[in-house]
Amino acid sequence: MSDALSDExxxxxxxxxxxxxxxxxxxxxxxxxxxxxxxLSRPLHTIKGVTGFMPxxxxxxxxxxxxxxxxxxxxxxxxxxxxxxxxxxxxxVNSIFAVIDQLRESGAPDQGEIDxxxxxxxxxxxxxxxxxxxxxxxxxTVEQEGGASVLRITAPRIHRKHQRxxxxxxxxxxPQETPVVLDLAAVKTFxxxxxxxxxxxxxxxxxSVRSLCGPARETFHASDMDALxxxxxxxxxxxxxx
Amino acid sequence: MRALIAEDEFLGRKMLTAFLNTLxxxxxxxxxxxxxxxxxxxxxxxxxYDLILMDIMMxxxxxxxxxxxxxxxxxxxxxxxxxxxxxxxxxxxxxTVIRSFHDGEAAGYLVKPLGKEKLxxxxxxxxxxTE
Lengths: 242, 131
What we know:
The complex is a heterodimer. By secondary structure, chain A is of the alpha/beta class. Chain A folds into two domains: 2-124, Four Helix Bundle (Hemerythrin (Met), subunit A); 140-241, 2-Layer Sandwich (Transcription Regulator spoIIAA). Helices cover 56% and strands 11% of the residues of chain A. In chain A, strands 1-2-4-6-7 form a five-stranded mixed beta sheet, with helices on one face. In chain A, strand 1 and strand 2 (148-153) form a beta hairpin. Chain B has helices at 10-20, 32-44, 63-76, 94-102, 116-125, and strands spanning 2-6, 25-29, 51-54, 84-89, 108-111. By secondary structure, chain B is of the alpha/beta class.
C-alpha cells in the first residue's frame, strides 16, 4: 500500500499541486495575500494530511503544518503583510517542495534544513528563541581581508534599528576608497528596511555581499538590491570586491 | 463538545461511542445520508459538531460523498469553522486517501481496525486531547 500511495502522491504533487502552488505564490508575490493563501491552502493541507498518513513521511507533515500555521497567521492579519513576511512565506512553501523532492530522491528529508526554516518562521511569528538577539548587543565584527573591510554579521536575524545603525555606522567608518564586504554567512533573515539603509550608502562606498542565502537573499532581491550591490559567492576572497 | 459517528456497522458504532463518550456528547448516523442530515440539524440548532468520524463504505450515501456535501454546505452557507472530519475506514488505497484530504479536506485518516490508542493519537494531533 505504502509504495502505491507514495507513487500516487508524488505524481499528484507534480501534476496537480505544484501548478496550484505556483499560482498561489504568484498571487502572494503580486500583493494578493488573501487570494494567494486561499489557493495555497488546499494543496498544502493535502500534503500535510497524506504525508502524515504515510510512515516515514511524518517530518514532512509536521513541517508543512508549521508553514501552514505561518500562512494562517498572515491570512488572519495577526502577522503584518510585510515584504519580509511574504518572502518568508514563499520560502517556506518552496521548502516544502524541496523536502518532497528529497523524500522522492533519497527517501529522507534534510532535517537540518527543515529545522532551520521552522526556526525562522517561528521567530518571525514571535514564537522562536531569540528572534533578533538582545537589544543593544553587537551584531557584527569588522576584519580586514585582501584590502577590503569585511563586516561579518554575527546575528542570525537583522531587523532591529540598533542593528541597522551598527551596520550603517561600520560602513561609514570605512574609508570610501576601501571596498566593503558584508559577510552574511551567519544570517538567516535580513529585513528590507536594513537593505534600504544600506542602499542609501551604495553610491558612496563600494559594497558587496558575500554568502547570501535563504530568506535574506529573497529580501535582497525583493528590495532590488542586486542593482546596487555586487554578490560574491561564499568562498570568494574579499579582495575580489575591489 | 459534540461528535457525530457515521458508521454502518453496529459493533463499530458501539466501540467508537465507548471510546469517545467521556470527551464528547455523541450522536450516531448509520449512513452518509443520515450524517448529512445530522450535520444540517446540528447547525440549525446552533450546536454544530466539533468532530465527525466518517466511515467511507456505507449504504445509501458513502462517506466521501457525504463529506463533499458537508463541505459544499459549509461553503454555501459560510459556516465557519469547518468541522474536523476523521475518516475511519477499511480502505487504504492511494486514490481514496488522497481524495479524502484534497477533495474532502479531511483532518485525518484512520484505517480499521481501530484501537483507542490510534484514535486518541489522532485526537491529540487535532487538539481534542492533551498529552
